[in-house]
Amino acid sequence: MGKVAVGAAVVCAAAVCAAAALVVRHRIKSSGKWARTLAILKEFEEKCGTPISKLKQVADAMTVEMHAGLASEGGSKLKMIISYVDNLPTGDEKGLFYALDLGGTNFRVLRVQLGGKESRVVKQEFEEVSIPPHLMTGSSDVGQDVVGELTKAMERVGLDMRVAALVNDTIGTLAGGRYNNPDVVAAVILGTGTNAAYVERAHAIPKWHGLLPKSGDMVINMEWGNFRSSHLPLTEYDQELDADSLNPGEQIFEKMISGMYLGEIVRRVLYKMAEEAEFFGDTVPPKLKIPFILRTPHMSAMHHDTSPDLKVVATKLKDILEISNTSLKMRKVIVELCDIVATRGARLSAAGIVGILKKLGRDIVKDGEKLKSVVALDGGLYEHYTKFRTCMENTLTELLGDEVSDNIVIEHSNDGSGIGATLLAACHSQYIEVEES
Ligand code: ADP
Ligand code: MG
């Protein structure tokens, strides 16, 4: 009996020992995984680094590419498209105008009654619908004249209307911004995609061989989303995102800063953590494998989560990725990851803007002369992603210094592109008629 009891006790003790050993091993193993998670995060953060010295190089590279794109067609990754818009609104425009704004995510129709200098925008109505996802990625039928197709479609439904102008949203924003403020020199869109346009002196466009416009100005559509430079802090995740995209090798700047991609970059890093560090447990959550499932508005909501237990992060993970039971420290890693991706995008956007200001000679105070420059900003990312916007604006000040920054104003040109399009239709309709005849 005694022996059995002793024997049993020994067995018991051995079992407890084994269990204890298992717990310890498990802790060592999971702390190894946690260390791996942190290592992935740290490495990513380092590769995304945007110290001021680097941003200055990016800004300089932007200025250099602008010169190259203006010098000759195909001279740069920046197309620097001559828009033929050589007059911007003055405020005198009058009449009833519609604008159709086809964005990356939404389709908007605007109806604007312009009343001239005194009454300005008399009335403005607005409708918006989401673009169905299957149309967003469908193939495009190239070589068709958009204005011709739209005119035919309007005739088919019996609309007595004439298309007066076809403008891109960035130029629309520039025009809308200028209407409100004559000091507007450039416009930047940060939405699903990104682009910039600015007012160039016509004689500073070597590839322009036509007559110089009376105004002496020409609006340039930069198509800056296609900018790329060896100074851009590209990571393996950006390279993989690009390789898997519909347009590999193109729109590299856009893929680092715009709303279409920021959430997807976060997903890719999380996927790596899940796979290599078992961040979400011993299997990779199936939803996390789906490209573009984590949208930038979700990322933004997680990034702005101020609740002590980060419950917005928990809810988003559950609702979008079907991941539950995340610990607070895991959620903190995710917020940190969002911060790294948004900060890089915001700081690079600021560097791009400085590149434009440099090209215009407005990045310095000349002979004590205080030249005021206004940049019109629009787009859902700029409008709704507060931390992105704040970081971009702070970086601009950091890059330009206090004295110059005093003269640079970032203005939110709300729906500037739609109103701007109607304004351009108004101030260029005569010009367009001459073109058509
Ligand atoms: P578009 O003209 O291309 O349709 P918008 O200028 O309306 O786009 O911007 C829409 C984009 O803005 C979305 O695709 C998204 O990336 C971004 N966005 C919208 N809402 C938010 C938000 N709350 N936080 C962060 N980004 C947002
Ligand atoms: Mg848009």
UniProtKB/TrEMBL annotation:
Its EC number is 2.7.1.-. Residues 186-427 form the Hexokinase C-terminal domain. It catalyses: a D-hexose + ATP = a D-hexose 6-phosphate + ADP + H(+); D-fructose + ATP = D-fructose 6-phosphate + ADP + H(+). Belongs to the hexokinase family. This is Phosphotransferase. PANTHER family: HEXOKINASE, HEXOKINASE TYPE 1-RELATED. It holds the Pfam family Hexokinase_1. Residues 41-141, 142-179 form the Hexokinase N-terminal domain. SUPFAM superfamilies: Actin-like ATPase domain. The keyword rRNA-binding does not apply. GO terms for biological process: glycolytic process; hexose metabolic process; intracellular glucose homeostasis. Keywords: ATP-binding, Glycolysis, Kinase, Nucleotide-binding, Transferase. GO terms for cellular component: mitochondrion. GO terms for molecular function: ATP binding; D-glucose binding; fructokinase activity. Pathway: Carbohydrate degradation; glycolysis; D-glyceraldehyde 3-phosphate and glycerone phosphate from D-glucose: step 1/4; Carbohydrate metabolism; hexose metabolism.
